[in-house]
Amino acid sequence: MILSGRGVTAMLGPTNTGKTHFAIERMVAHSSGIIGLPLRLLAREVYTRLVERVGVNRVALITGEEKIAPKTARYSVCTVEAMPRETDVAFVAIDEVQLAGDLERGHIFTDRILHLRGREETLLLGSATMKPILRQLLPGVSIVERPRLSSLFYAGQKKITRLPRRSAIVAFSSDEVYAIAELIRRQRGGAAVVLGALSPRTRNAQVELYQNGDVEYLVATDAIGMGLNLDVDHVAFAQDRKFDGHQYRNLNAGELGQIAGRAGRHMRDGTFGVTSRVPPFDEELVERLETHHFDPVKVLQWRCKTLDFSSLHALKASLDEVPRVQGLTRALPAVDQRALEFLARNPAVAGKADRRDRIETLWEACALPDYRRITPAQHADLIASLYLDLVEHGTVDEDFLAKQVRHADRTDGEIDTLSARIAQIRTWTYVSNRPGWLADPTHWQEKTRKIEDRLSDALHERLTKRFVDRRTSVLMKRLRENAMLEAEVSVNGDVFVEGHHVGELAGFRFKAVTGAEGPDARAIEAAALKALALEFEARAARLHASGNSDLVLDSSGTVRWLGDPVARLVASENVLRPRIVLLADEQLTGAARDHVAARIERYVAHQIQTVLKPLDDLANADDIEGLARGLAFQLVENFGVLFRRDVAAEVKALDQDARASLRRYGVRFGAYHVFMPALLKPAPAEMITLLWGLANDGLDKPGYGELIPVLAAGRTSVVTDPAFERAFYKLAGFRYLGKRAVRIDILERLADIIRPLTQWKPEAGGAQPEGAFDGRRFVTTPAMMSILGATPDDMEEILKGLGYRADVATPEEVAALEAVQAERDAEKAAKQHAGVAVETVARRAEKPVAAEPAATETPAAPAAETPAEDSGAVEKADKPAAEAAEASGAPAEIAASEPKEEEEPKPVLLWRPGARGNNERNRQGHQARGQRNEGRGRGQPGRKGGDGEQHERSGKPGGKGGKGGKGPRRDRGENEGNKPREQRRERDKPVDPDSPFAKLAALKAQMKR
User: Hey, what long-range contacts does 520-528 have (CB within 8 A, 24 or more apart)?
Assistant: First the structure.
């Protein structure tokens, strides 16, 4: 046998080191994996955690009694016995590997440790006592030691009745466990019970009883030492001897450390000690337990993996084979091997086991666990019945199975009776999950599972009734003796009656821990209230004298004093003055109750006035009058934010003095909002959201409080969630604009950027602002997207939400319009530097201008200037460009200069303010006229989409597609036809000296001289 530790990592250490958590994290990091655990209960816990991480369809649970195997499962959680002997998954983990030294189950752990490997990673988890033997058996294994997260201390010996809360008492027999639980029930109010013989469902229910705080004590066997995650502060050993299946013996230091290590969780320290008849631990043992230094495991239990099924004799011989590797020892006969010995002597069984396949079936049947803890002979008789059915009929006789299941399907009886029935039904649950043993396995799996669940629930009910419900018997006895019950309240609020913890005092409300009913509950309540009457008065005095730092108002509208809830807020007529409702029992009465209410009201008023000071000052302002007073009232009602369109008439009616009076209180008049910038901060926004939620029953609406962290993080915009209540965006200082919400003050900065772009006039001269287009429209710029933290698509949503409308233009059209504008700029520059008088230019240009056929055509150069041969070449060269220009609607010179692109260029959005009121009709009329004139401009650019430029002289806006016209003369030449009178009128008009045609004519005259 040649073994190797290559690719194997052993993570070793004491309890509470996070080994199992680490294994789960490593497994989900791989594409597939399997983890083996020592208990079905622990496997269930890990399965639940994995389902929460990766989903129920990607995790399988496989144990001897249960199988959940989705088709898309990538990860498997198994008991070690249910792990496959071979696998092809990427990750393999085996927990509690120190159990390889266990006499009963050790050979199974040893087999998985030596032979089961992950394709990419193999992880062994367990005690540090395995370090030497793993290095010996697996050369090259990587050892990682992890320290305990918290410390463990010895607390000495204490009586059971004096053990601290959150203690686990450990014994090793069911009789001792029940006796201790009964004692705790009488003295300390009850205990949960955990034994290895209980079904996993019953153990889970008992553990939950303890974890939820319904009981403060847990009585258990060493089953709690196998990876169960419990909130135990102290472990007390009531016994230190146990029966290991072969003999009674004392627990060794390693076993004691495994159990004691369950005290303390994560970073919380734990203690351990002894109780009952166990003598105190000696100093050497205490030191070893506190420092986690135990004797190393020297040998692992081993059984031959390669079994010979040629005959029963050969099978028995292979099971008796001795390991040839140092560090391994042959395991003692386990339940399956002892059953095989009995069956080999049974003539009926031996006669059927005459060939390999039947011998394999016999060995598979011998693996049936002995849940009932009966004698080996009785267990072998059950296996013989099953085996003969499998050999003779191919499946187990379902009539026999139905009779056995029906016999177990009863929930009457006491604890021991129910435990026996659970063990019996677990046997048939195992049979129903064996592949090929039943004709209808699905039916029997569901049926046995339901019966086991019913029995487990009934057993949990019996355990709870016996060890929890009658916890007040001592108190009732004192009442029958007419003795006065003594009650007290500790500093941390725990209420005790006759030394028994009966509940907790949170603020001014008493919460009972027990679930007692009838006279028991009344007796406890009467005794507790006796102590609480004086305690309430003392607490009221302390609260009345406390500072604001002792009180806090949380996001649910609850006022807490030193962490305990004492009042809650409800809506009132004044949104800034909510009403206070005390959270107190009837015992808080009179002056004490009045003092508490007055102190909390002062605190809440101070908090609101401090956090919302600008809004509070505006609400109480005496120097605001008239229309400004009404606008201030609306601002207070809307928590400092108004949409300007909603109050446009009021704002327009305000004079400058009224506006100034509002500005003194922090009101800002923006383009889109009238608001108070001081309230656009996390603390005011949180308070505003709370007050709105109180007034509108919005504390439970989706999105409540979710936007405050976004505001605190400094985000200027955020992707909206359709499920959120829309009002929460405004309350947090955001404007809801479709798929994105933008902070209100940022929108006003955006308005400041857009305003000069829409006010710039091309004919007025001056530098063109970035983003300005034609004086009425603009394009989005990086500066806009930067302040909003938005993409171009987001900008489109935001601008549409603000009421802007987009005209779609191609890049060629945009370039053509920009070229026209550049020509205008060049003309004005030439005008400033020209040295020729206007009258001279007009005289020289008079004859060429008269020869022009139409004002809209581009003048051609004189024929004498261009040789004949060159003109043909130019015509041929310009023809493709002209055709491209005609197809795209752009000038020939622009189309010829641009390279041909394979992909269609993205359109450009030209944004303009949306139509308002009565102007909508005029805008539609302009669009209709523009559509009629579209395409008649003889190559003039910019005719597609948009509101058009203003004419230079008339100042009237063009229609849709009418951007290309440069003046009235072109429009008349284009649209009015060949009318002689109008043509004469056109020639009689004086020539514009700044016209490019006049300059061209002057240049031609100079060349002729």
Answer: 520/472, 520/475, 520/476, 523/472, 523/475, 523/476, 523/479, 523/485, 524/472, 524/475, 524/497, 526/485, 527/475, 527/485, 527/486, 527/487, 527/497, 527/498, 527/502, 528/487, 528/495, 528/497, 528/502, 528/503
Which tens digit of pLDDT belongs to each residue from 489-542?
787 778 877 676 778 888 888 887 655 444 445 666 666 776 677 788 888 999
- Strands 908-913 and 167-170, by their bridges, are unpaired
How far is residue 651's CA from residue 905's CA, in Å, rounded to a whole number? 44
At 998 the pLDDT is: 59
Contact 774, 831 (CB under 8 A): no
Planar angle of CA 553, 559, 564, nearest 5 degrees: 120
- Which structure tokens are listed for 5? 């530790």
Question: Which tokens in the block code for residue 152?
Answer: 């463990």
Q: Is 753 helix (H, G, I), strand (E, B) or coil?
A: helix
Residue among 136, 155, 135, 153 nearest 144 (CA)? 135
d(CA 609, CA 419): 65
Helix (H) or strand (E) holding 67: strand 67-68
Classify 132 as helix, strand or coil.
Answer: helix
Under CATH, which number does the domain 8-145 receive?
A: 3.40.50.300
**Which run of H or of E encompasses 273?**
strand 270-274
Name the helix (H) or strand (E) containing 606.
helix 590-611
Give yes or no for a contact between 674 and 668, defined as CB atoms under 8 angstroms apart: yes
User: By three-state DSSP, how is residue 56 classified?
Assistant: helix
Write out the H or E segment, with its range, that includes residue 209. helix 200-211
* pTM for this model (two decimals): 0.50
| 575 contacts: CB under 8 Å, gap ≥ 6 | 636, 637, 639, 691, 692, 695
Alpha helices in 697-743 (DSSP H): 708-712, 727-731
- The domain spans of the chain are 8-145, 152-291
User: Does domain 152-291 match CATH 3.40.50.300?
Assistant: yes
- Predicted confidence at residue 165, as pLDDT, reads 85
Arithmetic mean of pLDDT over the chain:
79
CB 32 within 8 A of CB 91: yes
Please give the angle made by the CA atoms of 189, 203 and 453, to the nearest 5 degrees.
120
Identity at 767, one-letter amino acid code: A
- For 128, the 3-state DSSP assignment is helix
Residue keyed to tokens 């009221």: 540
